[in-house]
């Protein structure tokens, strides 16, 4: 089976991890720091905090923004469940904003309407978690404007989008958001096996996320509230935090992979272009993107159009039977049983639901060879034309 996504690990990556195994630090040590600084520099953000997953990074992002009981957080229904769960971990309630069918990202029109209504009802969210679907940035200028107008915080769930650009600036520079989160799960653009990172330009948010990442403890004596700073063993727990630290082993892999980020994104874009060109005249649609946006192309999202000979389910099953490991991104979060128990119903976010019925992700990863891609393209062309 050709998978829909796959990591690419080189001898260089392996050596980087083995070097750490032979060093003094296994858990958070100097390599974590170097990985953080390298990502911050690459994305032009001031601060970066590495974590053991993007899910943890989203959680400490919410905590640092003081999201808690009584607060409301909005996200996109077309995402991985972690985009919504992070708010629930904090005791906040979650709601969704429908997507734009042309991009699969949160619709800024739906967002503007929902914010206006929420303001009238005095039910404004404290934060909005936008998701850059498949690596394609949301319209951050518009989202930033709305955030200022309604005084809401913005978290970017950029789990798909490291290496991408918006208005020719790297995703992660946080110019239009408070915090931006990346994932380094193996299927994502670069990997640290498990891992994530939270970026911000706000020193206070960075300090808070650092504490929440490690038990709510600070060792910075200038920050002490009670203990004496001249006891060298001292540390203070000031918040209820977690152990969400990344290890140096993971950071070594991530740092080594970061060297290849631009190459990976270029390869993903080239493969995506092949698909786009090959399917001209075939009832397959793609995410619309503007010229100043560079998608990191975590996923090759396609839409089976309504005039297609085969419906999505038939296409999916046929491709799988032929060894082409297509996938669906995503089942709308609000249709998951857990969220149905929270009161969401079929029909609540109709654009997302319609999108879900027609979406299919095709294999896309650096190292997908020409022969395999040609086979995928020919199979689909034959099935649909
Ligand atoms: C993968 C993913 C996550 C979670 O990432 P982990 O590093 O596995 O915790 C969160 N949000 C989105 C959109 C994702 O795709």
From TrEMBL:
EC number in record: 2.6.1.92
Keywords noted in UniProt: Aminotransferase, Pyridoxal phosphate, Transferase
Name of this chain's protein: UDP-4-amino-4, 6-dideoxy-N-acetyl-beta-L-altrosamine transaminase
Domain of life: Bacteria
Signal peptide (from-to): none
InterPro entries the record matches: DegT/StrS_aminotransferase, PseC, PyrdxlP-dep_Trfase, PyrdxlP-dep_Trfase_major, PyrdxlP-dep_Trfase_small
Entry similarity comment: Belongs to the DegT/DnrJ/EryC1 family.
GO molecular function, one term: transaminase activity
GO biological process, one term: polysaccharide biosynthetic process
Pfam families per record: DegT_DnrJ_EryC1
Lineage of producing organism: Bacteria, Pseudomonadati, Pseudomonadota, Gammaproteobacteria, Alteromonadales
Gene designation per UniProt: pseC
């Amino acid at each position: 089976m050709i998978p829909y996504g796959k990591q690419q690990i080189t001898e260089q990556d392996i050596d980087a991890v083995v070097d750490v195994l032979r060093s003094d630090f296994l858990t958070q040590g100097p390599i974590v720091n170097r990985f953080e600084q390298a990502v911050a520099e690459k994305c032009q953000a001031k601060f970066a905090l590495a974590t053991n997953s993007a899910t943890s990074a989203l959680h400490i992002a919410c905590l640092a923004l003081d999201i808690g009981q009584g607060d409301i957080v909005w996200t996109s229904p077309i995402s991985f469940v972690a985009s919504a769960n992070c708010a629930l971990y904090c005791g906040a309630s979650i709601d969704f904003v429908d997507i734009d069918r042309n991009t699969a990202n949160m619709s800024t029109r739906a967002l503007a309407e929902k914010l206006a209504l929420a303001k009238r009802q005095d039910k404004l969210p404290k934060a909005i978690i936008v998701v850059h679907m498949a690596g394609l940035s949301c319209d951050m200028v518009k989202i930033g404007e709305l955030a200022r107008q309604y005084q809401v915080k913005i978290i970017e769930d950029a789990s798909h989008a490291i290496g991408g650009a918006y208005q020719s600036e790297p995703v992660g520079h946080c110019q239009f958001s408070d915090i931006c989160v990346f994932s380094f799960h193996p299927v994502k653009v670069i990997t640290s096996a498990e891992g994530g990172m939270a970026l911000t330009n706000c020193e206070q948010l960075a300090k808070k996320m650092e504490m929440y990442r490690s038990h709510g403890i600070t060792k910075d004596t200038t920050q002490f509230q009670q203990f004496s700073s001249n006891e060298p063993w001292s540390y203070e727990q000031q918040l209820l935090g977690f152990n969400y630290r990344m290890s140096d082993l993971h950071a070594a892999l991530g740092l080594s992979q970061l060297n290849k980020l631009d190459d990976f994104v270029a390869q993903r874009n080239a493969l995506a272009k092949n698909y786009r060109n090959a399917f001209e005249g075939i009832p397959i649609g793609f995410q619309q993107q503007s010229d100043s946006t560079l998608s990191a192309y975590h996923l090759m999202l396609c839409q089976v159009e309504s005039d297609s000979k085969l419906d999505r389910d038939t296409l999916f099953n046929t491709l799988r039977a032929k060894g082409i490991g297509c996938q669906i991104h995503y089942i709308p979060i609000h249709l998951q049983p857990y969220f149905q128990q929270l009161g969401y119903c079929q029909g609540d976010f109709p654009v997302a639901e319609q999108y879900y019925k027609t979406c299919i992700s095709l294999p896309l990863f650096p190292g997908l060879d020409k022969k395999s891609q040609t086979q995928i393209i020919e199979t689909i062309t034959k099935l649909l034309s």
